[in-house]
Amino acid sequence: MAHQAVEGLPGTDRAGAPAALLQIEDLAVDYRLRGRRTFRAIDGVSVSVQPGETVGLVGESGSGKSTIGRAVLGLAKTAAGSIEFQGHEISGLSRRRRAALAGDLQVVFQDPYSSLNPALTIGQILREPLQVRRKLSAREAQAVVVDLLTRVALPADAADRYPGSFSGGQRQRIAIARALSVGARLIVCDESVSALDVSTQAQVLALLQRLQAELGVAYLFISHDIAVVQHLSDRVVVLYRGRVMEQGPADRVCSTPLHPYTRLLLDAAPVPHPELQRRKREARLATAAAVPTAVAAAGATGSVPVTADACPFAARCPFAEQVCTQRRPALTGMAGVQVQCHLYDETSGHTRAGTVDPAIGIR
Fold first, then answer.
1. Residue 279: pLDDT band by 50, 70, 90 thresholds?
2. Which sequence spans correspond to the domains of the chain?
3. Which of 44, 56, 206, 301 could form a disulfide with 229 if both were Cys (CB 3.0 to 4.6 A apart)?
4. What is the pLDDT of residues 86-107, one digit of tens each?
């Protein structure tokens, strides 16, 4: 995407930018449970975001997508792996060094109201980082605030109002304006449109796309809704229980999914036509009711005993066999997509390995 410099907003010059703006390699994040036990929420995840690109992280609740965002923001401690931003390691930074990074790395949460001080006007909220971080005068800061409000399609008099007088969609626009005010190069959008109605979602997504075209900002877009992720993202990373199931170009992954879990997410996404929605629901229920013979033989009542390094989706997968409960799938690249599934590794021992046509995808 061609970058266009914008007067009044800092950090928009991409000259000399590294090949990857954000590079996550073999990331692991543990959460402490009672006693000395730990739960591995993220296990060996590698993701990159290029300047001006949108990468979507998608998966059900508990897939680890928000934990990855929190690790990037320094809100979750990494157990292993690395997180590089603009070519520099940022995991484990001190609070002071993390604060210095805030100008380039920002976040828009699901509920922006909780991050907007209700006692301050929108103008005060937006002017503060401009005067503190960029050392602008009051007059200069006010000019940038007017420009920011215009960019996010809010009237200039919004600067004199308080957060409580705005709708959810308007507050998201304010949160986006605040992220842009310090010249963010990467914005982590954590379920940033999931609490909005459909029409407001469309407006905010269109705004994010327009701002990206104008400013060259990159997004790490986190959502449980694969249809929204497909609409906004250049690339998609499909997560399940802290592991990457599939990743690649958004249109390719969502139109021709290779992993059974990606297929499940797409089948669960609603469609506007009632008859098509009914058929999708029936097909999804029929798939869920089917118990894989090999896996059923491994355990009674659908309980699948798995090793610690097995495929995490084995217990729900209609294609699962014994190997899926015993060994982690190898990362396989095909048709521009990376997928971790025994179906695509002809050395895995899965009886259907190599029989799925990548041009058609999983059905």
1. low
2. 22-254, 260-344
3. 56
4. 999 999 888 888 888 888 999 9
Judge whether 74 and 98 are in contact, CB under 8 Å: yes
Assess contact for 172 and 108: CB atoms under 8 A: yes
CA gyration radius, the chain: 22
Please tell me the predicted confidence (pLDDT) of residue 116.
86
Question: What pLDDT shows up at residue 131?
Answer: 85
pLDDT for 245: 97
User: Using one digit for the tens of pLDDT, what is the confidence trace for 194-238?
Assistant: 878 888 888 889 989 998 998 899 999 999 999 999 999 999 999
pTM: 0.85
The architecture of the domain spanning 22-254 is: 3-Layer(aba) Sandwich (3.40)
Q: Count CB neighbours of 214 within 10 A.
A: 16
